[in-house]
Amino acid sequence: xxxxxxxxxxSIRMQAEPTIEIIMAxxxxxxxxxxxxxxxxxxxxxxxKFYRVLFCYSICVTVNAFVKITACVYRPWxxxxxxxxxxxxxxxxxxxxxxSGHTAAAASCSLGIIWQYRGKKILAALLSxxxxxxxxxxxxLGCHTPQDILFALAEAAFAVxxxxxxxxxxxxxxxxxxVILVAASAMFAALVAYVFxxxxxxxxxxxxxxxxxxxxxxNDAMFDFSFALGFVHAWFLERRFIKxxxxxxxxxxxxxxxxxxxxxxxxxxxxxxxxxxxxxDKRLAKFIKxxxxxxxxxxxxxxxxxxIERALKW
Length: 314
Description:
This protein is mainly alpha-helical. Helices cover 77% and strands 0% of the residues. The chain has eleven helices and no strands.
């Protein structure tokens, strides 16, 4: 039934204007940009609230990546040859199918923000609509089955509950941040080892070519695990040694902080990551990229702008 549903959506997509497919692909891929915006809002709007959101996101993508490489469910077009995914979506459909990473990212950040700003009905409605659009787009584009989407939504709901509780525990209990740091470091070391030592299915097509290369499938897990690990390390260091504030921010402080955020984001995307791909295995390059994205957003960015603000006596 799931494949019949995707084939039905595919018939609609192929009869629609090409612009519809382009728009749906753009909305689908906006999940990654939304995560980046969430990181920026930590230093631009409300540190406490958006740290909690990043806890939710980090838990969600960790669970998502673990389930993906454990279940090893092939993409719909591999399981059903009649399914033709949208060309515009193939670039971001890089890992196993179950569960949906795009949906998990969009839902965990959106639900986390809704929970932190509970009572803001218009915000909740807009973010809920956004999650539904991203989730539906993954089916519409032929990249995921309905069960991929539903499980990702369940992961996000769990992550919001667990992440909010974990962040509150760290805020309320002295020394809890050290426990979280050590436990997370040990857990992610085990998860990375799991990525490399677990068995993967290796199936061949009629021409004797591997249908899905396990090494390629490991890339997304390395990025997700390292992003979450980088966040925990950065959160601990910032909490202990920088302690910046988002209270009473004026326009010039926000502009400075945004400039620093953009500097690190662009440097990692266009300099560090391409260099890492040239020098290392792509899985390691992905690990470096994921780790630096969160570490730069939560620790390096505050480290730089606090020094500048003090030097300028702002």
